[in-house]
């Protein structure tokens, strides 16, 4: 399976344009006007969304106007496999974090991605995962006092 560079660039530009549209739409719910006290909360995000849409449309036009001689593929089977092996652990991280809490999800994600695809030694991957979780806990829970999702395991251990 091979996707041409042209198709990939147009597809990516469409996705970013849709994200820009979502940002613009969400901004209108917060107000995008300039009133007596200054800009409303959606003012700057709205115009950032407009810039994203403009850039996406410009990319589509540029891609359509460019010559196609000797074009390398956007993605081939090997590159797609690498993307999937990168993307699937992130999906698993999100699912585990919702189910078991963010800190357990971070630990599992860091540990397994460093140990298996990263080919790190088991004890190094384990130590790194523990340090990353500890640093995140200290930053969010202690310094910023922003509680993150703990999940049933940490709640059972009395960590709220």
Termini gap: 48 Å
The total beta strand count reads 4
Portion in strands: 5-15%
| H/I helix tally | 6
Largest sheet: 2 strands, antiparallel
Domain count: 2
Largest sheet: spatial strand order:
1-4
**What spatial form do the alpha-carbon principal axes imply?**
flat
What integer is the average pLDDT?
92
- Low-confidence runs (pLDDT<50, min 5 residues)? none
Structural class: mainly alpha
Which assembly state applies to the chains in this document? Answer: single chain
Radius of gyration: 22 Å
Strand and helix order: EHEEHEHHHH
Fraction of residues in H or I helices: over 70%
Account of the protein in words:
It holds the Pfam family TctB. It comes from Terrihabitans rhizophilus. Keywords: Membrane, Transmembrane, Transmembrane helix. It is a single chain. This protein has 160 residues and is mainly α. It folds into two domains: 73 residues; 80 residues, no CATH class. Helices cover 71% and strands 6% of the residues. It has six helices and four strands, in the order βαββαβαααα. It has a two-stranded antiparallel ribbon. Strands 2-3 form a two-stranded antiparallel ribbon. The protein is flat.
Descriptive tags:
mainly alpha; two-stranded antiparallel sheet; 6 helices; flat; Tripartite tricarboxylate transporter TctB family protein; DUF1468; transmembrane; membrane; transmembrane helix
Summarize the helices and strands and which ones pair or pack:
Elements: E1 3-4, H1 5-28, E2 34-35, E3 38-39, H2 43-65, E4 73-75, H3 77-100, H4 102-115, H5 122-143, H6 151-156
Antiparallel strand pairs: 1-4, 2-3
Domain DUF1468: 12-148
Transmembrane segments: 12-32, 44-65, 86-112, 124-149
Keywords: Membrane, Transmembrane, Transmembrane helix
């Amino acid at each position: 399976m091979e996707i041409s560079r042209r198709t990939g660039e147009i597809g990516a530009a469409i996705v970013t344009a849709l994200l820009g549209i979502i940002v613009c739409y969400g901004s209108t719910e917060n107000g995008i006007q300039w009133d007596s006290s200054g800009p409303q909360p959606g003012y700057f995000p709205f115009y950032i969304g407009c810039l994203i849409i403009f850039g996406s449309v410009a990319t589509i036009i540029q891609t359509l106007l460019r010559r196609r001689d000797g074009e390398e593929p956007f993605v081939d089977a090997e590159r797609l496999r690498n993307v999937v092996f990168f993307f699937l652990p992130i999906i698993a991280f999100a699912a585990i974090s919702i189910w078991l809490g963010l800190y357990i999800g971070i630990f599992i994600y860091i540990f397994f991605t460093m140990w298996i695809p990263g080919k790190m030694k088991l004890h190094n991957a384990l130590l790194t995962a523990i340090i990353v979780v500890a640093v995140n806990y200290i930053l969010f829970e202690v310094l910023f006092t922003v509680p993150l999702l703990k999940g049933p395991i940490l709640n059972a251990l009395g960590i709220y």
